[in-house]
Structure formats: structure tokens, C-alpha cells
Amino acid sequence: MSHQSIKEECLQANLELPKTGLVDLTFGNVSVADPKARVFAIKPSGVDYDKLRADDMVVLDYDGQVVEGELRPSSDTPTHRCLYRRFEGIRSVVHTHSRSAVAFAQAGRDLPCLGTTHCDYFHGAIPCTRTMTPEEVGGEYEWETAVVIAEAFESRGIDPLNVPAVLVRNHGPFAWGPSAAKAVETALALEIVADMAIKTLSIQPAADPAPQHLLDKHFFRKHGPGAYYGQS
Amino acid sequence: MSHQSIKEECLQANLELPKTGLVDLTFGNVSVADPKARVFAIKPSGVDYDKLRADDMVVLDYDGQVVEGELRPSSDTPTHRCLYRRFEGIRSVVHTHSRSAVAFAQAGRDLPCLGTTHCDYFHGAIPCTRTMTPEEVGGEYEWETAVVIAEAFESRGIDPLNVPAVLVRNHGPFAWGPSAAKAVETALALEIVADMAIKTLSIQPAADPAPQHLLDKHFFRKHGPGAYYGQS
Amino acid sequence: MSHQSIKEECLQANLELPKTGLVDLTFGNVSVADPKARVFAIKPSGVDYDKLRADDMVVLDYDGQVVEGELRPSSDTPTHRCLYRRFEGIRSVVHTHSRSAVAFAQAGRDLPCLGTTHCDYFHGAIPCTRTMTPEEVGGEYEWETAVVIAEAFESRGIDPLNVPAVLVRNHGPFAWGPSAAKAVETALALEIVADMAIKTLSIQPAADPAPQHLLDKHFFRKHGPGAYYGQS
Amino acid sequence: MSHQSIKEECLQANLELPKTGLVDLTFGNVSVADPKARVFAIKPSGVDYDKLRADDMVVLDYDGQVVEGELRPSSDTPTHRCLYRRFEGIRSVVHTHSRSAVAFAQAGRDLPCLGTTHCDYFHGAIPCTRTMTPEEVGGEYEWETAVVIAEAFESRGIDPLNVPAVLVRNHGPFAWGPSAAKAVETALALEIVADMAIKTLSIQPAADPAPQHLLDKHFFRKHGPGAYYGQS
Lengths: 232, 232, 232, 232
Hints:
By secondary structure, chain A is of the alpha+beta class. In chain A, 41% of the residues lie in helices and 14% in strands.
């Protein structure tokens, strides 16, 4: 039972996820890593949320070997594993098919930063990945999904700690953070700003992004050494 | 009481239906067949959901004769009966007026496959039927509805087991499956992907369908001999 | 206590209204008439729903005199009174500001009949009234509102018993029926089909109305001597 | 405990706010002033709603000095303080990121007065402020936000008591009123009419505002010496 702590954190976040309204049917999963031990816990595949227990969580190492657990891990496990390897500093990954974020993924559009709600969580637009090739889809599909995610951040010079979410084209969102609770909160914030953006674009298709000085102000009001939000 | 099992399954699914949010007022019904016995159970017409009991379900044979039950069956009964005769391998049919699916039916548009949420349930676009003629509507209307549904699948070469739903033009959706629970789940998945599609088209009216290789990957990841989703 | 029955029916319907989701804040009211006695009961003005009692209902005669009740009746009372005088055969009137129906009223558009959900309740488009003149608004405004409603039906030859709802331009919907429960159900059906129509028009701005033969079939399947829906 | 009354009123309104559906995550705050004493109570920054107590409210004077309370006040405090100084006659200010109102703020559009639901609360369009300059954002940002709000009202000759809300560009709404309950109700009415406006514009992008005579009628039916709505 050496990894009980991340299994518990993983269970709680997977149970929290449907309560946020982000998850229809069973379209969602959360994983939680212990980066020093290079392992992570993830939800088993296709199990109903109301039956999940901490010991159902599957623990794998960063090479993909199961370390603890009897069940088959989520089919999206290789995506999570690759993200932990590529994005240093993240401790939890959340995947949903939340509807408004999916709309941008299906439209093949970045989610633009249109206002301060977005700025409070993401320092700029949420990138949408390129279409995956037949080779990528036909090969190690779930692993390649994360490779394409990492490519979107690297090719555009986006820091995944400042923009902690992505839209996988024709698929849906992934979000991440320093804890499962924060990653779930970020996935929820993503859906909220996607919903706001759809409404905004419906009344103003050419809406401009928030100006850079407003984006910087709001993001750094809450993040980094100059933050002055909250009680800490 | 020879058909108690399908009456119970039918009752449970009819009670489940309003909880999914798919049904406004009393716009919905589920039937469950016993294909070997060539009979099916269906909800009675215009009875409030909170008063339904298993013995209120009406059992008919595939020729339309009532085998068990005192109440008048749903006015849509001939549509269900015809579908059981035409689509071999289905065991339950669900009809709703769920709002986003109805929007596509009213728009006279196929519901395009825009992303993996759709691919996970349906191997391609959900067809919208042609307009029914005055003769079809003036004749055995509910039966003819299913004839037009079957025509949509046959004329386009779509396998109803791989695309287990349809949009009846200016009317609404029907979905089906190997059990009532699965047919209800499919009706819910249909509404979810219709909602996602409306949102997608609002921000990108010319959104492309998901590429064929992504569609194949996701559908066959969950269906058929190569499936690797879930615990089985 | 000679009008206790319509006061009770009126109270129950006014309490039911917020549960339908049709009413935001206190934007809604129901009245119930006793056409033989030429009186009707209506909600008092600006009283919270959770404090309403049957004896708070105000009973007025068709000439506008208060017959029973201590409170000031709803400011919309003259609209209800005029409708009872103009539309023979109705026993209850419901007014809401339900959001999707309001959208058509604000757009100055009739709500087109796009599918069978609409056909099941309304034999054709729901008319939107013309803009009221400064004289009408500056005079007996609430009474004139009903005069303009009646004009919309008479000038277009629409039978208010076959199309039991209207959209008052730049204002919102009124619905009516043979009982308060049926009038509330009709107000709910109106909002549902308005929501479906908004979604339909968003993906197909030129969507055609349902064909006349389909409209006739569905409406008369449920209404009139040839009806075959339900258990009666 | 000299300001217990406004702290209690402030707490109750902050607890009411999430129940209205106006607030996602912790995006919202309410303050309540005692204009004679020139002080106001406001929510502390970044504290979960379910842990708030009256003594957590922070009381500041109109010069920005904390008079009571241990916690750091909301980061939006200078906006509230400036509004109390500029808009004589208001006693409570509410800030939310309610989604439909945010859409207009992000679109940089005034919220037009399209119907009587709007007229009942606001005597004309809700103004959207101009974009704040880098100097304003880089300086006393939250204070300057209110300066830009006041400019929108003064430059257009709008009376903030007759139009008790504003949309801050690329940010979101503020609403105010004579009490916290009324300010929260106004914030809710704002979101409702924004939602109705989005739906209206989706089916009629060129929808005309409600005519002036209708606007005057509905606003003054509920406000000012000629009001005849409610029981008083």
C-alpha cells in the first residue's frame, strides 16, 4: 500500500468530476502523480463512478508498468503518462468531454482569451492541436495524443504551467495542475470560459481578445511572486 | 405472466428516461423485445411516468396483436414493431423528443460526426430521413415512419448496428440497442453529441467531420473483436 | 367563499408555475375563470410565491370589479379579463416571461411550426402581435394588450382553441386552456418548442415549416373527434 | 461591533449569490454600505462561500482604511469604494462573472433593451465601458475600473439609479441598489435579460430595441411616484 495517498487523491477527484457537470456518462478521468517516485494513479477503464473505491485505482510507473491494482487502467493512460514525462511540474491530469470545450476542439479553433475570467486561469489562448495523422492514430494512439499536445506547446513557445489546458482536435480537453483539486478546478474554469466564448462569438463573431495588459494584470494578480489575491 | 422479464426491463427503462433529461412532459417511450418469441413490451399511451407499473406495459407480437395488457399501447407502437422486423439484432427501441437531436431533425440535416464522443457510439453520421409523403402520413403513419427509417439505412448502406440511431425529419430521434439500458444510453449519447454539434457549428459553420481514421479508431476501440475499452 | 374552487385551482397553478422553470423571479401569473358566473381568480401583484395562500387570490367579475379578496390583483389583470371576454371557451390564462418564447417576442417573429412536438400542441405557427402604438400603451395598456392579441388571431383567421398561445411583441408569451393545469402545460410546451426552434434556426436559418399534412396528422391525432392518443 | 448590521446583510447576500446560479467557482462579491457613516462591508478575498461568517466581512471607510475585520478584503474592493463615492444613493454593489452578461462585456457591446423584462429593471440599454488603457490597468487598476464605469454613465448622461448595472469591457457586470437583496436581484435580472438578448439576436441579429413608449411605461409602472405594481 505504498501509494495510498495518490490513490485516495485520485479517487476523490474522479468522484468530484461528475458533480461539476463536466462529465456525461463516463467520459472523464483524473490521474495523480508522485513525481519523485515517478508513478501515478489513474481511474480504471469503464467502471461506473458510483462503484469506485480507492483500491480500484491503478498505479503505474512512468514506463507504463502497473505497480498496484487489479483492474485495467483507463484507455487514456498512455496520454497521461506521456504528459507527466513531457510537462515537468504537473502533478495531476484531468480529461473530460465537457461540451463547450469539445465544441472548440471539434471546430479546430484555439479558445481565445476574451476576458478576465479566462485571464484569471490561463495566460493566453488555449491551443487546439493539429489533426493527428493516420500513422499516429494507427500506432500508439493514446501516447501519440500526448506527443501532439506537447508539440502544440513547444512549437508555439507556450509554457504549460501558465496555460494549463489544451484542446485535442476532434476530441476534447485535457487540463492539469499541481494537485487533483486544482486540475479539476482548471478543467471547470476551461468549460466556463469556453461557454462564455461561444456566447460572445454568437453576438460578436469578430470579438477581439482581451488586451495584453489586461491579460498580464489578471493572470499575475493571482499567480507568481506579485500575486495579491486570496489570504496567503 | 410469461413475459414478465421484458415488462420489467421496459418499465425500468421508461422510468429511467425522464431522469436523463431527454424527455419533456410525456414525449418519450421505450420498448423491449424478446426476438425469439417475436414479442415486445411497450409503454401505454399518455400515462404519467410516476404512475407506471410493470403490469401497465403492453405486450404485442410482431404482427401487432396484443398478447398481454389492458391499456392502449403507445401511439408509436407500429414504428417500434416495424423496426424490430426490419433491423435484425436489436432488442430495445427508444423514442424521445430530446431537444438538440430534434433540432437536427427539424433542420433536415444529418448529425455529422465531428469528434470522438460521437465516434465512441456511432460509426459515422446519424442519418436524417426524407420528408414523408401525404400518402404515407395519411395511411398507416406510424408504421410508415419505420419504413422510411429503414429506407434511410438501406439506401445509404448504413448498418443499423453500427449507427444505432436515426433522426426522423420534422419529428425527432429513435435509438436502439441490445438492451433497454444500452438503448437509453445511446439515446442520451445522441443528445449529447447533438448538443456538442450545435455548439461547434455556431463557432465554425463549416466544421469538418472527424477524419475517417479517427472515427474507425474510436469506434472499434469500443466495439467488435479488437475492442480494448472497459474491464471485459 | 362562493368561489373557493377557482381560487384553489388558481393557487395550485401559480405554485406549479415556478417549478416548471418557466418563471424567473416573479415574472408570471395564472388566472382561472368560472365562465358561467363570469368571474375569474388571479394572483395578487408582486407577492412572493412561497407566501401565497388560496385566500390571497383576487376574484373579479368580467367587468373588472373585485368580488373577493383583500389584495391588489396582478397588474396584468385587464389582459386576462379581456381574453376571457374575447376568446370563448377558454377557462385559464397563463402569462410568463419564459426565455426562449420571449426571444421570439423580442425578435418580432412568429414561432414557426418546425416539427411534431409543436404540432402536438398547436395547429400552426404561434403568432407574434404587432407593436403597440403610443396611444395604446399610454391608455389602458394592459387591456389594450389583449385587444392587440385578439386582433392577431382575428386578422389572420386563427382559432385560439387550436393555437392556444401568443407572443406579445417586445414582451412575452400568454397561453390558455380548458383548465389551469392544461394552460400551464401549454405554456411549458410553448417554451420547449421555442427552445427547439432557436436551436434549429441556429443550424439551418432557412428551415422549412413541417409540411401541412404532418401538422394536421399530429394535431388531430391528439385533438378533436378523430383523436387516438391516450387511454380515453 | 458597531457595524454588525451591514456585516450581516453583506454575509447573507454573499451566501445568496451562489444560489442564484450567477457565480461560478468564487467569481463574485457583494458589499453593503452605511452611507451616513461612510463605511461599507465587503467579502474577504478568495474564501470559500461555505466557510463565510459575518465576522469575516471586512469593513472599510470611504478612504479605504480597514475599520473592522482581520482578513484581506476582496481584491475588487477599490472598485466598490469608488462606486459608493461616485454614485450617490446606492447602498450595495454586486460583482459577478455571470455568463451571458460577460458575453456582452467580452463582445464590447451595450446590452440593448429588447423587451419588457429589461424595461421592468433598467430604463434603457446597459452600457459597456470603453477598453481600459495600459496606464489605467498598470496603475490603481481596481479603482480605475470604477472611474471608467462612472465615465460611461456621465459621458452618456445615464442616471445610475435608473440603469443600476454596467458591463466592464472584457471583464463582467456590476450591479447596485438600495439594499443587498435588491442589488442581487438586479444582478440576476441582468443575467436573465442578457440570456434573452443572446437568444433574440441569434434568431434576429438586427432586432430593434423596445419602443421608447413601452420602455417608459414598464419602467415607471414599477418605479417612481406613478408606480402601480405590488401591494404598497
